[in-house]
Amino acid sequence: MKKLTFLSRFGKWIGIGIVVLFLFFLIIVTLLFQREEQRQDNLGSYGAGEVPESVLQWQPYIEQELAKYGRADNLHVLLAITTQESGGTASLDIMQASESLGLPPNTIQDPLFSIEVGVRYFDEVMTQAENAGVDVDTAIQAYNMGNGYINFVAQNGGKHSGELAQEFSNQMKAQLGWSVYGDPNYVAHVKRYLGESLGNLGKDTAFGQLQNPYFGQEDKYVVTSEIGWRWGRMHKGIDLAPLGATNLPVASAGEGTVVYAGFSPTGGFMVRIRHDEYVSDSGNTLHTQYLHLSQPPSVNIGELVDKGQIIGLTGTTGRSTGVHLHFEVHNGEGNQVNPRHFVDFSPH
């Protein structure tokens, strides 16, 4: 009898230990996620520009590497950097990443390895720039001039300029005894292949904050997938799965006009709304998209909808593996961005 009592108590303590470890794990994951979300909002980024096909052929691999660091929003910056570094040609070290490893230029002879090293170095300079509180242009210039430029800018106003880049270049030339140090006009050269600045998008548009499509039901769903590289392709939105696979009502994230309401083989029953009164920092009209609804939408093309108006029910139509809402935000038509930049998905 005593032996059973001992085993019972021992099992009880094991159970408590497992619960404590699980709670600790949840806390760590939550803190890391909050840090990542805050990190992505700090510097801002740029829209798409004109990039040659010789560089675009590497886009899937660049997207895959960016996803490792949670930096899918910086795709256009990396494509522009790659264009500048490679000269738009089929260079083997297409991101000129050899020097970040302390090797002579063009030592790397594998484009995929160049991308792997180059994106890793880009993440390093972005992380340091975020921690220093400087702008994204400083991070771009640091890709060319090295991490020291970030500290230099942080000590001189916190914002990149051509003048600061030239001053830093002159200091490093004098310090190292070199005749050339970096390209003080690197940012301007990279921007030739970039679109408009998206700035720090934040959650507020010029008109106001977009609303969670599950507003008022925040305790009835979980986020199952974020925007980013997944299963060999780019996942272009955020997936929200109702608890118990229930068909939760889906509401419009803001006032707007329904530009599509119908069925597609991949998206299933879906709705796309143009929000003319919701404009990003770059001046683009926002669009939202709602996929995998359970049945035909309750709104029609051309219909004006209000923020919070029910447009359908959550389902699993189209290419879907379970009941969920795939929700997208487009900064301009067809330009998917991280929905978390505009919508608060945290529990209330």
From TrEMBL:
<dbReference type="InterPro" id="IPR047194">
    <property type="entry name" value="CwlT-like_lysozyme"/>
</dbReference>
<dbReference type="GO" id="GO:0004222">
    <property type="term" value="F:metalloendopeptidase activity"/>
</dbReference>
<keyword id="KW-0472">Membrane</keyword>
<protein>
    <submittedName>
        <fullName>Peptidase family M23</fullName>
    </submittedName>
</protein>
<feature type="domain" description="M23ase beta-sheet core">
    <location>
        <begin position="233"/>
        <end position="339"/>
    </location>
</feature>
<dbReference type="InterPro" id="IPR023346">
    <property type="entry name" value="Lysozyme-like_dom_sf"/>
</dbReference>
<keyword id="KW-0812">Transmembrane</keyword>
<dbReference type="InterPro" id="IPR011055">
    <property type="entry name" value="Dup_hybrid_motif"/>
</dbReference>
<dbReference type="GO" id="GO:0009986">
    <property type="term" value="C:cell surface"/>
</dbReference>
<dbReference type="InterPro" id="IPR016047">
    <property type="entry name" value="M23ase_b-sheet_dom"/>
</dbReference>
<dbReference type="Pfam" id="PF13702">
    <property type="entry name" value="Lysozyme_like"/>
</dbReference>
<dbReference type="Pfam" id="PF01551">
    <property type="entry name" value="Peptidase_M23"/>
</dbReference>
<feature type="domain" description="CwlT-like lysozyme">
    <location>
        <begin position="53"/>
        <end position="178"/>
    </location>
</feature>
<feature type="transmembrane region" description="Helical">
    <location>
        <begin position="12"/>
        <end position="33"/>
    </location>
</feature>
<keyword id="KW-1133">Transmembrane helix</keyword>
<dbReference type="InterPro" id="IPR050570">
    <property type="entry name" value="Cell_wall_metabolism_enzyme"/>
</dbReference>
